[in-house]
Amino acid sequence: MYSPFDPVVPVLLLVGLYFLSAGSFTLNQAQEWEIDKEMPRTADRPIPKGILRPWQAYAIGIIFVVFGFLVLFLLRPMTAYLGLATVVMYNGFYTLYWKRKMVFGAVPGAIPGAMPVVIGFSVAQPNLFVPDMFYLFLIMFLWQMPHFWCLAIKYKEDYAKGGIPTLPVAIGVPKTLYHIGLYTIVYLGVALASPIFVQTKYTYFVLILPFSVMVAIEFLRYFRSDGQKRWLAFFLWTNFSMLAFVIAPVVDKWIHL
Question: Could you tell me how far CA 154 lies from the centroid of its own chain?
């Protein structure tokens, strides 16, 4: 038995997530502005350019996080606390330690990156320990390593100038490509095994299979070029595949309501 659809719920969820994530990213820029000014890719951000002062960014970030928390609290207290825990993990553990000190900091850093699906899921289902949630979290978690390390290869010199020990900076591009391949295989494996976790029928053949094949093909092209070519194609197909893998079970559920 399904409860009636309330259009206010997704609106509040989107507003709450928007302000929570915007506040978290604003705090991140306040925390890392000295690193950002050393990296050409981020040197044009507001604080390095002198448009904002760090304290102003901190103030904006805190206000946004508090407002986002209160909006999510209207939906379900647990949802709000999950959002707050995500901010603490991202701006506390990841920004201040994992990213700066750990070569594989992207791996634990992928936990807060995967939390949005957990936050959204908690609005409809307070019991998070179910196969549906396990699948959604794994997809979001595993996707982030190919996504980030691909960018880290492209902007290797930027990260080196900023003193961030990303995988390509610390162990070189060839070894990084092997790690990207490992996580890509596991990521696609979870997607292809989705019927074990969630209801995927028509969308399995329409979305999951085609995107899995394209991601695999683009990775092989990217790998064979030693990370010099096809990076954008692999990056985009990986990103779009994540959306497809997350949307597929949702579409199938709506079809069979």
Answer: 18
Q: How far apart are CA 168 and CA 160, in angstroms?
A: 9
* Distance (Å, whole) CA 26 – CA 8: 27
pLDDT digits (tens, 9 = 90+) for 139-180: 999 999 999 999 999 999 999 998 999 999 999 999 999 999
Do the Cβ atoms of 218 and 233 come closer than 8 Å? Answer: yes
55 Cβ contact partners less than 8 Å away, ≥ 6 residues apart: 30
CATH of domain 129-257: 1.20.120
Question: pLDDT for 187-220, tens place per residue?
Answer: 999 999 999 998 777 888 889 999 999 999 999 9
Residue 107 has which token pair? 């791996």
Helix (H, G, I), strand (E, B) or coil at 164: coil
Cβ-based neighbours of 70, under 8 Å, separated by 6 or more: 80
Q: Where are the alpha helices (DSSP H) in 125-172?
A: 131-154, 156-162, 167-171
C-alpha–C-alpha distance, residues 62 and 39, integer Å: 25
3-state secondary structure of 174: helix
Distance in angstroms between the alpha carbons of the first and the last residue of the chain: 10
Measured CA distances, 225 to 21, 160, 168, 222, 229 (Å):
35, 22, 15, 5, 6
Among 130, 128, 98, which residue's Cα sits nearest to residue 112? 98
209 half-sphere exposure, CB direction, 13 A CA radius:
8
Extract the tokens encoding 229.
Answer: 């070519």
Domain 1-102, CATH number (from 1.10.10.10, 3.40.50.300, 3.30.1490.270, 1.10.357.140): 1.10.357.140
